[in-house]
Design goal:
There is one protein chain. It is built from eight helices and four strands, in the order αβββαααβαααα. The protein is mainly alpha-helical. The chain has a single domain (34-213), classed as Protein Binding, DinI Protein, Chain A, CATH 3.30.910. It has helices spanning 2-16, 45-51, 53-89, 93-146, 167-176, 186-189, 192-202, 207-213, and strands at 21-22, 35-36, 40-44, 151-155. The model is unreliable at 1-24, 213-222 and 224-235 (pLDDT under 50). A two-stranded antiparallel ribbon has the order 1-2. A two-stranded parallel ribbon has the order 3-4.
Length: 235
């Protein structure tokens, strides 16, 4: 019951755009208690990360590490192919037995490499994403303070004009966002691109990432006009 009540209050806040807070002081008899309006904002975490060069650099580094593991696996696979051809052409049973033993050993080595890759990359990703989230959290806090927001709701949505209104995207959005801003004045209450700009200034992109993107991080948006209210700058 308490959870349902809290959820209902949260949804009401999204619709109203502010949450009145009762003052601690007692109001004079017969007069309503004074209220303090609370300014509420929104930030799309997925859009911020998509435009954050440090997150792109993490993805590139993960791919590089994954390619290293795949290189080890390919060498093992190439050796297996050579052995399989030799096995098919050989009439020496002892040699065939030796090949079978070596092939089994190689398969175990490949399984070990795959297991090590999963553990290593998973741990690395978790640690680096945690660091990026701390940066994102700090950026949201600083932008909120500097622009006078008291509360900021975080949500996740893929702002892509080509896929935004497709049925599978809509169903996925409905299923994955229990609390989601349907309509609001984006220019006044959404701080997504302000956070992107803050991160770009506080945490400059690595040189390699800038070379790949051909410049600095973009702060433009790709949300379809009228998607969730208001418009964002185009890329």
């Amino acid at each position: 019951m308490i959870r349902k009540f809290a959820l209902a209050c949260g949804l009401a806040a999204l619709v109203a755009g502010f949450i009145p807070t009762l003052s601690n002081a007692q109001a004079p008899a017969g007069q309503p208690a004074p209220v303090t309006p609370v300014r509420v904002g929104f930030v799309n975490m997925q859009e911020v990360l998509k435009l954050y060069p440090r997150y792109k650099a993490l993805q590139d580094e993960l791919k590089k590490k994954d390619d290293e593991f795949m290189g080890l696996v390919r060498k093992k696979q190439e050796r297996m192919e050579v052995l399989q051809k030799e096995y098919a052409a050989s009439s020496d049973q002892k040699r065939k037995d030796a090949i079978e033993t070596e092939v089994r050993s190689i398969k175990l080595e490949i399984d070990t490499i795959a297991s090590d890759a999963k553990k290593t990359l998973g741990k690395y990703f978790d640690e680096e994403v945690a660091k990026i989230y701390v940066e994102f959290y700090g950026a949201v806090a600083e932008v909120s303070k500097s622009h006078g927001f008291d509360i900021v709701w975080r949500y996740t949505e893929d702002w892509n004009k080509e896929t935004y209104s497709k049925p599978d995207s809509i169903v996925r959005r409905m299923a994955s966002n229990p609390i989601f801003p349907m309509y609001y004045d984006r220019e006044r209450y959404d701080i997504t691109y302000r956070v992107v700009s803050y991160l770009a200034q506080k945490y400059p992109a690595p040189a390699a990432t800038l070379q790949q993107t051909g410049g600095t991080a973009t702060t433009g948006g790709n949300v379809p006009a009228g998607g969730t209210g208001g418009t964002a700058p185009n890329k």
